[in-house]
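I hope you will forgive my troubling you with a question about protein structure. The full record is reproduced below for your convenience:

——
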Amino acid sequence: MDINSVISATTAPPASAPKSRISSDFDTFLRMLTVQMQNQDPLKPIDSADYAVQLATFSGVEQQVRTNQLLTDMQSKFQQLGMAEMASWIGKEARSSAQVRYDGSPVTLSPNPAAGANRAVLAVRDAQGNLVAREEIPVSTAPYTWLGAGADGAPLPPGNYRITLESMNDERLIDARPVEHYARVIEARDGGSTGIKLVLHGGIEVLATEVTALREPRS
């Protein structure tokens, strides 16, 4: 069998194959080329042009392996730089639309009602997704202090809550989106392909790219 046919079948890993497959095929190519040279017919040696093509293929595979190694090293360094930068965020307060941790103390929200709304309502859901409170607030982008009251006016139990801001025009819903709020950053961790994740007070996780503001903690 012509070595080029064999190489094309063994050095073209499917899209889903791991990167280590390339290095394995690189070694396979070298072994096959060596065996071909050792076992060629002395009376009918392989044409030099064929060797040139095979060596060019060998060089291409080698370059691909080195390029992938370089990209892997660069990715690792970028992640390390990102983690170093995120370290300065620990202890500060980050604003995002993540869940809200309520532990009995008021929480400052940053509402942003949609254009055309004449009413704004906070819809509060617990960790199981149950609606536990609805609270009408001013139609304004000014910070709003949420006291953590349930539907009966009594304080909700400590826990993580998802608070959605419903922008209304009279009784018609215009828009609904998670309301942003500030929470203290307690940890930064590598989230792999999704990027760096921040762990907020209460164990709530949010991607660093979803943070819209950062501030010093308030007493």
